[in-house]
């Protein structure tokens, strides 16, 4: 399956209320989140990770599918 179509399908499912789709999207972005967190000190990483995921969810739910 094409990655962009897969992401589109997951986004559509997530916007419809599928918690499984939301978790799968977060898991797909987890490597990028972890890589970004390496730029900060260890004691702040978990708090920052939670903030990033919260922001990510806000963007996910506000994104308009066309």
Order of H and E elements: HHH
User: Which percent range describes the beta-strand content?
Assistant: under 5%
Oligomerization state: single chain
Shape: elongated
Helix count, per DSSP? 3
N-to-C terminal Cα separation, in Å?
20 Å
- Uncertain runs are none
Query: Gyration radius, to the nearest Å?
Result: 13 Å
Structural class: mainly alpha
Number of beta-strand segments: 0
Helix content: over 70%
Mean pLDDT: 89
Largest sheet: none
Compose a concise summary of this entry.
The chain is mostly helical. It contains three helices and no strands. Helix 2 (19-37) packs across helix 3 (42-62).
Give structural notes:
This protein is mainly α. It is built from three helices and no strands. It has helices spanning 3-15, 19-37, 42-62. The longest helix has 21 residues, at 42-62.
